[in-house]
Amino acid sequence: MRNVRNLILTIIAVVLFAFFLDKAPELLNGYWQRILNLIAINAILALSLNLIYGITGMFSLGHAGFMAIGAYVSALLVLSPAQKNSMWILEDIYPWLLNVNAPFIVSLIIAGLVAAFFGLLVALPVLRLGGDYLGIATLGFAEIIRILITNTARLTNGSLGLKGIPAYTTLFMSWSCLGIVLLCTVCMLRSNFGGVLRAVRDDEVAAKMMGINTFKIKVIAFTLGCFGGGLGGALMGNLITTIDPRMFMITQTYNVLMIIVVGGLGSVTGSLIGSVLVTTMLEWLRFVENPITIGAINIPGIPGMRMVIFSLLLIMVIIFRREGIMGMREFSWNIFFPKKKITDVGSKTETVLELEDVKLKFGGLSAIDNLSMKIKHWEIVGLIGPNGAGKTSAFNVISGFYKPTSGTIKFLGKSIGGLSPDEVCKAGMSRTFQNIRLFGNQTVLQNVMIGSRIRQKYSWWMTLLPFIFTDVIKEDAEARAQAMNLLDQLGLDAFADEKASSLPYGAQRRLEIARALATRPKFLLLDEPAAGMNPQESEELMKFIRRLRDEFDLTILLIEHDMKVVMNVCDYIHVLDQGVHIAEGTPAEIKANPRVVEAYLGAGAAEGGAA
Amino acid sequence: MDDRTMLKIEKLNVSYGAIQAVRDVSISINRGEIVTLIGANGAGKSSIIRAIMGLVKSRSEEMTFISPRDGKPVSIQGKPAEAHVKLGISLSPEGRRILPQLTVEENLTLGAYIRDDAKGIADDMEYVYSLFPRLKERRRQKGSTLSGGEQQMLAVGRALMSRPDLLMLDEPSLGLAPILVDEVFGIIREINAQGRTILLVEQNAFAALKVAHKAYVLEVGAVGLSGTGAELLNDPKVRAAYLGG
Amino acid sequence: MELNIFVQHFINALSLGSLYGLVAVGYTMVYGILRLINFAHGDIFMLGAYFVYFATIVYKLNWGVGVVIAIILTTICGLLVDRIAYKPLREAPRISALISAIGVSFFIENFAVVVFTGMPRPVVQPPILMKPIEFSNGVRLIPLGILVPVVAFLLVGALLWLLYCTKPGLAMRAISFDIETTRMMGVSVNKIIALAFGLGSALAAVAGIMWALRYPRVEPFMGMTPGIKAFIAAVFGGIGSVPGAMIGGLILGFVEIMSVAFFPTLSGYKDAFAFLLLILILLFRPTGLLGEKLEDKI
Known about the structure:
heterotrimer; A: alpha/beta; ABC transporter involved in vitamin B12 uptake, BtuC; Rossmann fold; 4-stranded antiparallel beta sheet; about 55% helix; C: mainly alpha; 12 helices; about 5% strand
């Protein structure tokens, strides 16, 4: 019911706005029409950079370059041969280019596609970098693009730029483009694929463990964002009617970056609000650069003052409200209306996991030395040992985060040594992390749904138009139902719409397990599930782990320091000490093993403790 | 308050987000003692020592340090780590935290950062080298090239360079071969014999209890038992705290 | 190529490279400690140039006095930037400080437009620096071309001495590896960070002054391109490493000057070389020439 109501309200709002735009040429003067156009273009640019940076977490400073590509491609397509002939003064235009022509709308799409193509070329090598390095590399590419444009005069007319571009960017055009971009963005971000994008941003390591090929996801998001950059640039060129390489300096990227920071990184609503505010503010602030006359006093205009005030405001926003206006929240009609819910059977292979002489070395240091173990179906196995014994390293080797230096790892009969985490996950293994790695900014339900992405069949691009590709809606609904089911079983259903990071600690641990279960694993690795729990909580956890094994037909390997948990819940225990496998056996055998006692309590403890 | 008291802590609490790592822990340390905190992993030992050093936010009813230099009690609750060093407290942190690109000698010099007496610093450096002759051989090598045991020696030596009255050692035996563990505990005793008070956090309970005058056994963030080292050494509950009873 | 021409190109490359190096050192020190790209650093460089312009040309002070005043004023500006725009954000996500840096950069540039106007102003070069020296083999050199690298090398030498032979230098190196441990040693971390900003700004001021003498003019946006290139030099040499920054700067200077000298047709692409070098090194040796490899943890 609420969805229908919201849809109706949205349609009404859109129709009203369209009506307003239709009448705008009569109601508004040229100045205000220009501002409205700029708002729409800036919003497209902001949404596309937000997709790259705010949603997927890739720090890119290259937007200006992709805008430039879009602006030039579109301009070259819409300029008439006569105009081109008269404009290329220094060098002759390429003959093939002279007669190339396309209608404006086609030129917009081509502009976006060419920008996206360059984006893809940039993404493939550069997205392997992270953080600031990615920012600097993309900035470098944008500058290279600009320099190329300046120097390929036969193609671009060089530093003279292009003039007399037809002013095809009308209010109707710019706002329709924004409407389509917005609709596609919102649809994509609301689908489970959108959750995957945000998961990559929140925690790339955990996302890999959900079976997600994070590199591919990043390339897709980056390329899509570049499409938006090219489209925005093309609209901009056809609005201003003149373009030259100096327009697309790094300052242009900063402008877009500012919009999304002011609005709130990662929020679509924020990008829209940011576009309105920043665009209007920048235009309005022009008054400080014009002479003002108040009564008899004449204040001369001060050039540069506009950006001084603007940069001061930006610094203040960052220092005093660094999450921006919206933070990561989104607009929803619901704010105007006060507020009034499977189990799986795995295959029965006798040995689930088998490690043989696995070694792991970092530099010269040996983290794991000749570890061999066999884990049988339906077993709960403990991996214990003092600090620095190599337990987590063993987990990382098994789950594919580290490549073993030597030795073999067989999972369900297949060798998995050297597979990446997402491949290991697809093979049927899932894990939790010592220091809980949830996608903190997303809801509990979304966290779990991401786990089911590996079983969904629809492709990412279908999420742009879910009304046509209804599989998206159908499969997401299934994933949601399954996720709710899991939450229900784990007693987390009441939290479904809460932000994951706002959950109490114990519930966060359970959620991490729920998320791992959503990939439908046959084998589950739990890294210190009882860490930070008080005695009652760990008591409950013990029961919970056994129940999990029974209900989900799992085999479980767990690392744990709380010996009560280990001794009570595990069928079998392996002990590591300084990377060496020093003992294995049933809990009773382990407790009586002098080498174990010594590893834990120190030399001499075995005799001392017996007293 | 005992006139030999050097550090007195009442009801210390440390939380990381939703996890409470330390609950209402009270500890007191007398001048000249070796006091040890033992307990299984995750029991909150390191959190206590980091709270005393001012490296994590904490709450307490009282956290007072009485410097033997002037006998004046000073509250150290909420003070930054650098202020602690000037008062006479120093820490050899868990995981050694050697600065990998600095040489052994530079690491030691950094330990004496708050001091200006070149002569005294040189003397103390010789003293550290006499405790750990291996470090002297490697004085020009970078920290990253040392073995685990040597790094541990360097961490302890570095903490001594500020001439602390209270020396805190966080897991000095972690990851060391058994023969080195004995050596480290021997040196802890030696440092104590020369008049320094020591707070020792250890996973290797038996080694720690053997050298300690007083010990606190921690279980999930709270003090479970306390007593002299000798008393606890034979207490079956200590064993239970580690191996789950 | 004639010897005379080659020597001139060589000296040219050496001075351009050492100027990049001087600015790069400031980037590398701040990045090494705070992991912050101080986008305002190029603008601090511009301020240095303007201050010396005002001191010597507008207020007609003696060059020596003017240079000292300019360095002091620039250093104060650098410290203020840290205090006002970065210090409140030490605990914030790194992106916040980065955006703040972009804001500060905008602010300084446009404030300069407001105060100094956007018009480029010519700098009068002291004649003594411009009188060519002729050698017997026909090589002619302008003293300024020699002065620039000499000053730059002396300053970087002095900085290395400070870093490797003094206590604050030791603390600065320590902070870049592990802030918490350094704090445990009794080091007041904020003071050392301020020292890094101060030193970086002073070096940028010197670079700005020498830049203004080389291309005899000042304008509000003169710091932008050299600033970005110097940052690239710092990344190229291995961010966090002072010798690396200098080496990165020199390589960049040589690549720019020599490529144009030997392939004049490429002169339009001069500015692209820096970025091309950057991307190549990031792809093949992401930590730069002298950078340390960082392990990532799970």
